[in-house]
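Side project, low priority. Logging it here so it doesn't get lost.
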Amino acid sequence: MWYPSTVIAAPAVEPVTLAEAKEQCGILSGETHFDTQINRLIKAARKHAEEYCNARFAEQTIVSQCDSFADFARLSEGPLKSVTSITYIDPAGDEQSIDASVYDAHKDGLEPSIGLKYGRVWPRIRFGSRITLTAIYGGQAPESVQHAMLLLIGHWFVNRDAVVTGTIATTIPMGVDALLSNHRRGA
Protein backbone atom coordinates (compact mmCIF):
# COMPACT_ATOMS: atom_id res chain seq x y z
CA MET A 1 0.00 0.00 0.00
CA TRP A 2 1.28 3.45 -0.93
CA TYR A 3 0.88 6.35 1.49
CA PRO A 4 0.35 10.01 0.45
CA SER A 5 3.38 11.43 -1.35
CA THR A 6 5.32 14.57 -0.46
CA VAL A 7 6.81 16.96 -3.00
CA ILE A 8 10.32 17.86 -1.82
CA ALA A 9 11.41 19.81 -4.92
CA ALA A 10 8.62 21.74 -6.62
CA PRO A 11 8.57 22.27 -10.39
CA ALA A 12 11.03 24.85 -11.67
CA VAL A 13 9.16 25.14 -14.98
CA GLU A 14 5.38 25.02 -15.45
CA PRO A 15 3.71 23.32 -18.43
CA VAL A 16 2.08 26.62 -19.43
CA THR A 17 4.12 29.81 -19.76
CA LEU A 18 3.15 33.19 -18.38
CA ALA A 19 2.92 34.52 -21.96
CA GLU A 20 0.52 31.73 -22.99
CA ALA A 21 -1.66 32.30 -19.92
CA LYS A 22 -1.75 36.06 -20.47
CA GLU A 23 -2.79 35.54 -24.08
CA GLN A 24 -5.59 33.19 -22.92
CA CYS A 25 -6.78 35.87 -20.50
CA GLY A 26 -6.64 38.63 -23.12
CA ILE A 27 -3.82 40.51 -21.37
CA LEU A 28 -1.33 42.38 -23.52
CA SER A 29 2.19 40.93 -23.42
CA GLY A 30 3.76 44.14 -22.07
CA GLU A 31 1.23 44.51 -19.25
CA THR A 32 2.67 43.16 -15.97
CA HIS A 33 0.02 44.22 -13.44
CA PHE A 34 -1.55 40.73 -13.32
CA ASP A 35 1.66 38.63 -13.51
CA THR A 36 1.60 37.53 -9.86
CA GLN A 37 -2.04 36.50 -10.07
CA ILE A 38 -1.56 34.70 -13.40
CA ASN A 39 1.46 32.79 -12.04
CA ARG A 40 -0.68 31.65 -9.10
CA LEU A 41 -3.40 30.53 -11.50
CA ILE A 42 -0.87 28.58 -13.59
CA LYS A 43 0.26 26.64 -10.51
CA ALA A 44 -3.32 26.05 -9.40
CA ALA A 45 -4.34 24.81 -12.86
CA ARG A 46 -1.36 22.42 -12.98
CA LYS A 47 -2.16 21.09 -9.52
CA HIS A 48 -5.81 20.61 -10.50
CA ALA A 49 -4.81 18.69 -13.64
CA GLU A 50 -2.36 16.57 -11.65
CA GLU A 51 -4.95 15.71 -9.00
CA TYR A 52 -7.64 14.98 -11.58
CA CYS A 53 -5.33 12.72 -13.62
CA ASN A 54 -3.28 11.33 -10.72
CA ALA A 55 -0.21 12.20 -12.82
CA ARG A 56 2.58 14.79 -12.67
CA PHE A 57 2.82 17.22 -15.59
CA ALA A 58 5.85 19.20 -14.44
CA GLU A 59 9.17 17.77 -13.29
CA GLN A 60 9.30 17.48 -9.49
CA THR A 61 11.02 15.37 -6.84
CA ILE A 62 8.64 13.31 -4.72
CA VAL A 63 9.05 11.08 -1.67
CA SER A 64 6.62 8.17 -1.36
CA GLN A 65 6.37 5.36 1.17
CA CYS A 66 4.93 1.87 0.91
CA ASP A 67 4.65 -1.27 3.02
CA SER A 68 6.24 -3.83 0.71
CA PHE A 69 8.47 -4.23 -2.32
CA ALA A 70 5.44 -5.84 -4.01
CA ASP A 71 3.96 -2.32 -4.14
CA PHE A 72 6.67 -1.41 -6.66
CA ALA A 73 4.68 -3.30 -9.31
CA ARG A 74 2.68 -0.06 -9.68
CA LEU A 75 4.15 3.17 -8.39
CA SER A 76 1.91 5.72 -6.72
CA GLU A 77 3.06 8.48 -9.07
CA GLY A 78 3.74 8.81 -12.78
CA PRO A 79 5.29 9.40 -15.22
CA LEU A 80 8.67 8.38 -13.79
CA LYS A 81 11.83 10.16 -14.96
CA SER A 82 14.39 8.64 -12.58
CA VAL A 83 14.82 7.01 -9.19
CA THR A 84 16.92 9.02 -6.74
CA SER A 85 16.95 6.50 -3.89
CA ILE A 86 15.18 3.57 -2.26
CA THR A 87 15.68 3.21 1.48
CA TYR A 88 14.31 0.81 4.07
CA ILE A 89 14.78 -0.24 7.69
CA ASP A 90 16.55 -3.59 8.03
CA PRO A 91 15.58 -6.20 10.68
CA ALA A 92 18.25 -4.77 13.04
CA GLY A 93 16.58 -1.32 12.87
CA ASP A 94 19.18 0.42 10.69
CA GLU A 95 18.32 2.46 7.62
CA GLN A 96 19.73 0.97 4.42
CA SER A 97 19.82 2.08 0.77
CA ILE A 98 19.30 -0.23 -2.16
CA ASP A 99 21.94 0.03 -4.87
CA ALA A 100 20.64 0.79 -8.36
CA SER A 101 22.29 -2.42 -9.59
CA VAL A 102 19.55 -4.39 -7.80
CA TYR A 103 16.52 -3.01 -9.64
CA ASP A 104 15.24 -1.69 -12.96
CA ALA A 105 13.03 1.38 -13.22
CA HIS A 106 10.35 0.73 -15.84
CA LYS A 107 9.32 4.12 -17.19
CA ASP A 108 6.12 2.95 -18.87
CA GLY A 109 4.37 6.27 -19.40
CA LEU A 110 1.71 6.88 -16.79
CA GLU A 111 2.09 3.39 -15.26
CA PRO A 112 5.72 3.09 -14.13
CA SER A 113 7.07 0.30 -11.94
CA ILE A 114 10.28 -0.90 -10.36
CA GLY A 115 11.32 -4.52 -10.74
CA LEU A 116 14.23 -6.68 -9.69
CA LYS A 117 17.06 -7.36 -12.08
CA TYR A 118 17.61 -10.99 -12.99
CA GLY A 119 19.11 -13.04 -10.16
CA ARG A 120 18.54 -10.36 -7.50
CA VAL A 121 16.29 -10.41 -4.44
CA TRP A 122 14.74 -7.66 -2.38
CA PRO A 123 16.22 -7.35 1.12
CA ARG A 124 14.27 -8.19 4.27
CA ILE A 125 12.74 -5.21 6.02
CA ARG A 126 11.86 -4.64 9.65
CA PHE A 127 8.29 -5.66 10.41
CA GLY A 128 5.99 -2.65 10.43
CA SER A 129 8.48 -0.30 8.77
CA ARG A 130 8.03 1.44 5.45
CA ILE A 131 10.07 1.55 2.28
CA THR A 132 10.87 5.08 1.08
CA LEU A 133 11.15 5.88 -2.62
CA THR A 134 12.56 9.24 -3.67
CA ALA A 135 12.14 9.85 -7.39
CA ILE A 136 11.75 12.49 -10.06
CA TYR A 137 8.41 12.46 -11.83
CA GLY A 138 6.74 14.55 -14.50
CA GLY A 139 7.91 16.03 -17.71
CA GLN A 140 6.31 17.27 -20.89
CA ALA A 141 2.57 17.82 -20.48
CA PRO A 142 0.51 16.73 -23.50
CA GLU A 143 -1.06 19.56 -25.53
CA SER A 144 -4.55 18.61 -24.38
CA VAL A 145 -3.46 18.97 -20.73
CA GLN A 146 -1.88 22.35 -21.50
CA HIS A 147 -5.09 23.45 -23.22
CA ALA A 148 -7.21 22.30 -20.25
CA MET A 149 -4.94 24.33 -17.98
CA LEU A 150 -5.37 27.39 -20.19
CA LEU A 151 -9.16 26.98 -20.08
CA LEU A 152 -9.05 26.86 -16.28
CA ILE A 153 -6.71 29.86 -16.05
CA GLY A 154 -8.93 31.92 -18.34
CA HIS A 155 -12.07 30.92 -16.43
CA TRP A 156 -10.53 31.64 -13.02
CA PHE A 157 -9.14 34.98 -14.21
CA VAL A 158 -12.58 36.17 -15.35
CA ASN A 159 -14.53 34.55 -12.46
CA ARG A 160 -12.51 35.53 -9.41
CA ASP A 161 -15.13 34.71 -6.80
CA ALA A 162 -16.46 31.33 -5.68
CA VAL A 163 -20.06 32.35 -6.41
CA VAL A 164 -21.36 34.35 -9.34
CA THR A 165 -24.85 35.80 -8.86
CA GLY A 166 -27.31 36.84 -11.52
CA THR A 167 -26.11 34.44 -14.22
CA ILE A 168 -26.89 30.97 -15.40
CA ALA A 169 -23.83 28.75 -15.42
CA THR A 170 -23.38 25.72 -17.63
CA THR A 171 -20.49 23.39 -18.30
CA ILE A 172 -18.79 23.89 -21.65
CA PRO A 173 -19.16 20.74 -23.75
CA MET A 174 -15.79 19.13 -24.48
CA GLY A 175 -14.25 21.27 -21.75
CA VAL A 176 -11.58 20.63 -19.14
CA ASP A 177 -12.79 17.16 -18.09
CA ALA A 178 -12.87 15.95 -21.69
CA LEU A 179 -9.35 17.24 -22.34
CA LEU A 180 -7.93 15.61 -19.21
CA SER A 181 -9.85 12.33 -19.24
CA ASN A 182 -7.42 10.47 -21.55
CA HIS A 183 -4.50 11.22 -19.23
CA ARG A 184 -5.89 9.73 -16.03
CA ARG A 185 -3.90 7.09 -14.15
CA GLY A 186 -5.72 4.16 -12.63
CA ALA A 187 -9.08 5.27 -13.99
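Brief comment: The longest strand covers residues 80-89.
Revisit when time allows.
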